[in-house]
Amino acid sequence: MSIDLDAALSADPVVREISWTASDVLLYHLSLGAGSVAGRPELALTYEQDLTALPTFGLVAGGGISSRRIAAPSMHLPGIDIDLRKVLHGGQRIEVHRPLPTAGVARTSQRVADVVDLGEGRAAVVELETTAEDGDGPLWTQVSQIWARGEGGFGGSNPRSDGVRLPERDADLRVTVATGVNQAMLYRLNGDYNPLHIDPQFARAAGLDEPILHGLATFGIAAKAITDAVADGRVDRLTGIEARFAGMVRPGQQIAVEIWTGTLGSAATEAGEEVLFRASVDGAVALDRGRATVR
């Protein structure tokens, strides 16, 4: 991979118009397992009447079934030539500035916010920032961390301290979520058609025994679990969430979401109060250094 740091950081943002419908929001929630437990229809997430949208829907808005497009995975960034075989989704953050509309049109703007150099022979970390706004103002801001293995040593910015450290005590809450064997098949309809998540032959070529669940699906499942456990299921109370991707989930496995609420009241901001979390499968961490903001 070659990196022209000046070109990457000085390039004009990529601006496009996106749109989504209630059907996209419903599919997103269903792909996270909403309504899959007997006796819990979760109508606020699964029924178009009085529908609400999880904040993490902003990560897939404009790419779902109403977009009428199926595209192969690709990444084109100014000043950065990435070998996709070396790329990992390392972390994700999203903040919503107000409750997301369940149908709408928005303008998104994406730029390379930073390229972090983890050292010679180690990774380069590309931080992509995307903002969205509609006629009523800002909707969300998200930052994706894209790791390029073995591409450090180019002279980029120094690593920053993550700042999120989980308490050294048992979690206050633990939510176990069962995923379906068709979970990745559903989630890919949100717009991520990477064959790694459905094609066994492609997965084996990538060194895996079988297709895996999308990292952002696990991220969304954790967001829903936190909303259910801490915010009484009210999606408007979740204003932001971030985590580092640390491991894989296979469709059909159970995800254990551990939540620390003891930070509530000690880390209040205008957006709300902090909740820390991690998600694991069979004791192996899948999401680490998780932090959510609940108001």
CATH-level-2 architecture: Roll
CATH superfamily: Hotdog Thioesterase
Dominant shape: globular
| Radius of gyration, whole Å | 19 Å
Quickly count the domains.
1
Summarize the helix and strand pattern as letters: EHEHHEEEEEEHHHEEEE
Give the low-pLDDT segments: none
Task: Please tell me about this protein's structure.
The chain has 295 residues and is of the alpha+beta class. It has one domain (2-294): Hotdog Thioesterase (Thiol Ester Dehydrase, Chain A, Roll). It is 16% helix and 34% strand. The chain has helices at 5-10, 22-31, 43-46, 183-187, 200-205, 215-230; strands at residues 2-3, 14-20, 80-81, 87-96, 104-117, 124-134, 137-148, 173-178, 238-245, 254-260, 273-281, 284-294. The strands form two sheets. It has a ten-stranded antiparallel beta sheet. It is globular. The mean pLDDT is 88.
